[in-house]
Write a structure and sequence with these properties.
6-stranded mixed sheet; 5-stranded mixed sheet
């Protein structure tokens, strides 16, 4: 009896030791006892929460296949660093801003999209843009050139940050210049027209290509000759077109094509001014790259296009860049900039801002803008970067009395299109320059009344 009790006590003690050992250490533990090896196992459940991937839509227009490829590469790099965010890149080729506004009405607007400076007041007024000043730190905003931010401000709020910027410059074909006996680019608007005539006579190629219409391309002519910057906020502002300098310079600009193309061909002579379509080109970059014209006035976006599409047409050897010609009162150029605007109704504003911050920040601009060479960086500090393309660096070295950001008032985008239509009609000879000017006045009065 006593022996059985001792045996029982020993067994109980062994079991208790095994239980205590298993409870003190998680996982598997082997505990030796006098009688056997007792194996115990404690299961630990770990709950892993996976964050659902968010997809955002990014819409822009394209400056060509090269830019699209660069954007796609940048997006892939962003997605690697942010695996919970996916970005769908959409390219809209026609009537970009009108299509974006229409997408708001249909409830299918993208999360982030381009907004040109000339259209910014309309998007801000319609409440389409999320205030970037509510998302970005001031230290981040302060990295950008202040003059590029002005078109995107209202009532103390900032509604977007520019992805880059460009300015007009004169592109000229050195080989055609040499054939025509010209040794340097034109300094004035009068010389520009004179050079165009000489080149047409000496080489048989038009000296200059311009767009039909293009009010924004004309503005530097007016301002450099002493006209005030155009600003249309109320019907009475149509009086800008009554300014004698505006009348004179706008007539001259319209006649560049009206006389340089229409009248010259009527006389059986080589035109000295054409539009891209007249030489089988889609735009100024094509016309210049194909060497069908000697001069165009265009922006920095043309530089990577030429490098990509016409690699045998060498910068510095075959073509070069000069400042926009001067007028009687100085030299002016147009500046163009575009923001990545965030949809005010986006379901994912924080994720969208994270993408925008990456694209617009130093890393994104270094890859896409500085190395990619698509335009000029909107961030300060890249001016002397060793990766800056020499063509872009040269445009930054030009001295201007006025650099005008593309914005004429609260309806700039709409006015630009209608002004350009009136100018184009006069250039084609359908109406006179005087009728075009009267029409442009009427457009201001009608668009801004009420």
């Amino acid at each position: 009896m006593k022996k059985k009790m001792v045996h029982s006590l020993v067994l109980v003690s062994v079991l208790l030791l095994a239980i205590v050992a298993a409870g003190c250490i998680g996982g598997e533990k082997e505990t030796a006892t006098p009688e056997t090896i007792v194996k115990t196992e404690t299961k630990v459940e770990t709950k892993v929460e996976t964050q659902e991937k968010v997809f955002i839509r990014f819409a822009g227009w394209s400056a060509g296949e090269t830019e699209m490829k660069k954007y796609q590469a940048l997006i892939e790099e962003f997605e690697k660093k942010n695996p919970t965010i996916g970005v769908k890149y959409e390219v809209i080729t026609q009537m970009f801003h009108e299509n974006i506004l229409a997408s708001f009405g249909a409830g299918v607007a993208p999360d982030v999209f381009y907004v040109d400076s000339s259209w910014s007041p309309i998007f801000i007024e319609k409440g389409a843009l999320y205030p970037i000043s509510d998302l970005a730190d001031k230290s981040f905003i302060d990295q950008f050139y202040p003059f590029l931010l002005e078109p995107f401000k209202k009532d103390g709020k900032l509604y977007g940050l520019p992805k880059d910027w460009s300015m007009l410059a004169l592109f000229y074909n050195k080989k055609l210049f040499a054939q025509a006996g010209l040794t340097k680019p034109p300094e004035t608007w009068e010389e520009l027209e004179q050079y165009a005539k000489i080149i047409a006579e000496k080489t048989g190629k038009p000296g200059l290509a311009i767009y039909l219409g293009g009010f924004n391309r004309y503005v530097p002519v007016a301002i450099s000759n002493g006209a005030p910057k155009p600003w249309f906020e109320k019907p009475a502002d149509a009086s800008w077109f009554d300014n004698p300098v505006v009348k004179e310079t706008l007539t001259w600009y319209i006649n560049l094509y009206r006389i340089g193309k229409i009248e010259m061909e009527n006389q059986g002579k080589t035109p000295y001014v054409v539009q891209p379509g007249d030489v089988g080109a889609g735009w100024l970059g094509d016309a210049f790259g194909q060497q069908e014209v000697a001069m165009v006035i265009s922006g920095n976006w043309m530089i990577p296009f030429l490098a990509d599409q016409f690699p045998d047409f060498k910068y510095g050897e075959d073509w070069d860049i000069a400042p926009v010609p001067a007028g009687k009162k100085g030299r002016a150029t147009m500046a163009y900039t575009v923001i990545l605007g965030i949809n005010a109704k986006s379901e994912h504003p924080q994720e969208t801002w994270k993408f925008v911050e990456y694209v617009l920040g130093p890393e994104g601009q270094k890859e896409l803008v500085v190395k990619g060479g698509h335009a000029l960086p909107s961030l300060k500090g890249f001016e002397n970067d060793p990766d800056m393309w020499p063509q872009h660096a040269k445009t930054l070295s030009f001295k201007y009395d006025n650099v005008v950001v593309f914005l004429w008032g609260p309806k700039s985008g709409i006015l630009e299109g209608k002004f350009s239509d009136a100018m184009a009609a006069a250039m084609r000879g359908e109406i006179t320059p005087e009728e075009a000017i009267a029409t442009m006045k009427q457009i201001v009065e009608e668009e801004l009344s009420g």
